Amino acid sequence: MRIVQVTDAHLHADPAAHSRTGIPLKQFNAVIDAVKAQHPDLVIVTGDISQDETSTSYTHAVEQLGALPCPWFWLPGNHDQADLMEAEHPLLEEVDLDDWRMLLLNTQVPGQPYGELGPDKLAAMTKRLEADTRPTLIAMHHPPVEVGASWMDAIGLNDREAFWQVLSTYPHVKLIVFGHAHQAFAQAYAMGEGQVGVYGCPATSDQFLPGAKAFAVDEASRPGYRVIELDGGQWHTWVERIDL
Asked: Torsion-angle region of residue 114: left (phi > 0), alpha (psi -120 to 50) or beta?
């Protein structure tokens, strides 16, 4: 099974609106066109679809995502309005991937740049992990690990220790993908006797400078997406960039 991750579009109602380095809708459309050529079985969009929190910004996204040759799913980021997303396309908590399953976690704290699950969502995640021991992919917006950029690490997942404490008893969690960081990232997170693959993804909009102590845009980098191939209990993943 081939899954493509797309993230951090930061779209506006105005299709010609600019970001720091480009036009978000133009870049989003170019990424989606490139994704189509990958012939994915499924696409997951890991948050920050909108920048201006308007219904029209989500309509722009759905127009492009709806043209994909496969099912697609999304979850909210810190910039999103979940009710406006739900009005355009369902927000699901779990997707059946045949031999695998995918959990979609909402880490949004309304009005805050950082993320958090909290006791109730952690308990719900625990219940779902107990109910099914197939290899599991978790998709979320906020990074559950430090990515090495001080300012970004300060606005990642606040309760990451509690998150990993839950996962420590469920070795069938194999893979985690996140957005928010606007950069490629890969880490093998040691958990018990095994490892969990933790991956970040380039944004379709601006790219952030890896390793920066303060906010900085990476003007030399390009928009992109992540490809994930699931094969039995194993996976292979890589990042693709696009030319504008």
From this structure: beta
Tens-digit pLDDT profile for residues 31-52 = 999 999 999 999 999 999 999 9
The count of structural domains within the chain is 1
Quote the pLDDT of residue 158: 97
Q: Name 241's bridge partners.
A: 224
Q: For residue 237, what is the domain's CATH number?
A: 3.60.21.10
pLDDT of residue 88: 97
Residue 130, sorted as left (phi over 0), alpha (psi -120 to 50) or beta, turns out to be: alpha
Residue that has been written with the tokens 């910039």 in this structure: 79
Tell me how far apart the alpha carbons of residues 222 and 200 are, in angstroms, rounded to a whole number: 15
Cα separation, 176 vs 192, whole angstroms: 16
Tokens of 100: 């695998």
**pLDDT, average across residues 60-75:** 97
Tell which residue, 51, 99, 105, 97, has the closest CA to residue 74: 105
Residue 47: how many CB atoms within 10 A of its CB?
27
Domain that holds residue 169: 2-241
> Structure tokens of 145?
């690990």
